[in-house]
Amino acid sequence: MPVTMPHDLPARAVLAAEQVFVMSDDRAGHQDIRPMRIAILNLMPMKVTTETQLLRLLSNSPLQIEATLLRVASHVSRTTASEHLDSFYSTFDEVADQHFDGLIITGAPIERLDFEDVDYWPEMTRILDWTRSNVQSTLHVCWGAQAALYHHYGVGKHELPQKLSGVFPHRLTDARSPVVTGFDDEFLAPHSRHTDVAAADIESTGRVDVLAVSEEAGVYLAASRDGRQVYVTGHPEYDADTLAREYARDSEQGLPVAPPAHYFPGDDPTAPPANRWRGHGNLLYSNWLNYCVYQETPFDPSGA
Q1: 90: Cα within 13 Å, side-chain hemisphere
Q2: Reaction catalysed (predicted)?
Q3: Is residue 189 part of a domain?
Q4: Domain assignment present for 113
Q5: Which structural domain range is residue 172 located in?
């Protein structure tokens, strides 16, 4: 089934060219079915790229998705045109009285800042508190996962000696969770971050279970037992070349970064990388939509 999005959203043309089933607002209005209302709080700097990646994953489901793009009002983006934000994004205050079946909170390249030093942290805490009453299930990604674990449970993050970047093998630690239904016992996923959260700190909350870990990259996936909070420390939404573009950017800025681990063929940064995590990424988002959102959300989302 399709993701419903505005006709002139740039992501729509990209996904249509990939044969992804997308639908205009007008056509969706003629279907006798209630779509799942999914909001995306996009904190990444390259917002058009991120919204395309996430909408691609949301489209791989039998459910009709009505996507709402959100931004924080207390931070001015320097990398996305204001015209794009004004045309396609809402602020939190504009939707605060609404209920959503699901919410995705993306990462942000600010991991080395203390949470309280982030200029939009007060707004972020309001949003995280709001999710408890107005969202059936929230999927937190990378910095979004660290921020939520810190705000909800006091789980701190730890700065790594160097940037963690690459595609790492992971193993399931709890195969009983619906979030990992159909997962292989071992699977690959990309990471790109400067900080980490400890599995012991997450488990000590008594309310969040660690579901998958990597010997090299640490915790990858965790979830609350009721499925209303899902935490992903990596980036299953990344395109095949995203880590390569990040590495080139950091290298051009003279930053001391190593090539992403287990990523370039033969560890040759000039060789085009392959996407070896696409299947796992699609399964993760499909499971979240099915088991944490669709199976649990009330027919009337205002009762979430």
Answers
A1: 12
A2: L-homoserine + acetyl-CoA = O-acetyl-L-homoserine + CoA
A3: yes
A4: yes
A5: 36-292
Q: Which helix (H) or strand (E) holds 137?
A: strand 135-141
Find out whether 192 is annotated in a ligand binding site.
Answer: yes
Q: Per-residue pLDDT tens for 154-209?
A: 999 999 999 999 999 999 999 999 999 999 999 999 999 999 999 999 999 999 99
The pLDDT of residue 18 is above 80: no
**Cα angle value 151/152/156 (rounded, 5°):** 55
Query: Of 32, 22, 57, nearest to 232 (Cα)?
Result: 57
H or E element that contains 188: strand 186-196
Spell out the residues 6+ positions from residue 68 whose beta carbon is closer than 8 angstroms to its own: 37, 38, 39, 40, 90, 95, 100
Catalytic, 296? Answer: no
pLDDT the model gives residue 1:
47
| Residue 90 is assigned to a ligand binding site | no
Residue 32 scores a pLDDT above 80: no
| Number of domain units in the chain | 1
> Active-site residue among 66, 111, 140, 142?
142
Determine whether 140 is an active site residue: no
Given a cut of 50, is residue 212 above it in pLDDT?
Answer: yes
3-state secondary structure of 223: strand
Q: What is the model's pTM? A: 0.88
> In CATH, what number is assigned to the domain containing residue 130?
3.40.50.880
Please tell me whether 249 is known to bind a ligand: yes
Catalytic hit among 237, 246, 280, 292: 237
152 annotated active-site? no
Long-range contacts of 241-245 (CB under 8 A, 24+ apart): 241/272, 241/273, 242/49, 242/190, 242/192, 243/165, 243/166, 243/167, 243/190, 243/192, 243/273, 244/269, 244/272, 244/273
Catalytically annotated residue among 140, 170, 235, 280: 235
Rg (CA), the chain: 18
